[in-house]
Specification:
single chain, alpha+beta, Nucleoside Triphosphate Pyrophosphohydrolase, five-stranded mixed sheet, three-stranded antiparallel sheet, 3 helices
Length: 156
């Protein structure tokens, strides 16, 4: 299997509250299986599915709403490797390659983590400066790269 084929295609979302841009608060959610881990919503892109189609499907599946506005998209695919413990469960994939979007929740959005297959037990909004203090160690380099890009481009 080639390196490209060993990474699961995925879509990921950095979501800001509906107070954006006056106040920048980033959504993170606490996993229900690894409760010490907080992360951005994300999910696999199904075969034949367009990236934005997966984006809106995953939003509904993970946080119960797709009432968002796309602010920006990270311009390229970005990848990370799973830690060994997770890689064993995710075979044949050794990691994920992701498309990141910066989204703003619409005022009409109601976050509901009690979805058909709940992945999260809690959520909160944190500052840009604080987000990496809450997230999984193996995702931090990707999170930092994407956040720094959105800062440089004037979105965060």
């Amino acid at each position: 299997m080639s390196k490209k084929e060993s990474y699961r295609p995925n879509v990921a979302m950095i979501i800001v509250s509906n107070n954006y841009p006056q106040k920048i608060e980033i959504f993170i959610a606490q996993r229900n299986d690894l409760t010490e881990i907080w992360q951005f919503p994300q999910g696999g892109i199904d075969v034949g599915e367009e990236v934005q189609e997966a984006l809106f499907r995953e939003l509904k599946e993970e946080i119960g709403t797709d009432k968002v506005k796309i602010i920006a998209e990270y311009p390229e695919w970005i990848s990370y490797d799973f830690p060994e413990k997770i890689a064993q469960k995710m075979k044949p994939y050794k990691g994920q390659t992701q498309r990141y979007f910066l989204l703003k929740l619409k005022k009409s959005a109601n976050i509901d983590l009690n979805t058909k297959h709940p992945e999260f037990i809690s959520h909160k909004f944190v500052s840009v400066e604080d987000v990496l203090n809450h997230t999984a160690h193996f995702k931090k380099p990707v999170y930092d790269t994407v956040i720094q890009y959105f800062i440089k481009e004037g979105f965060l």
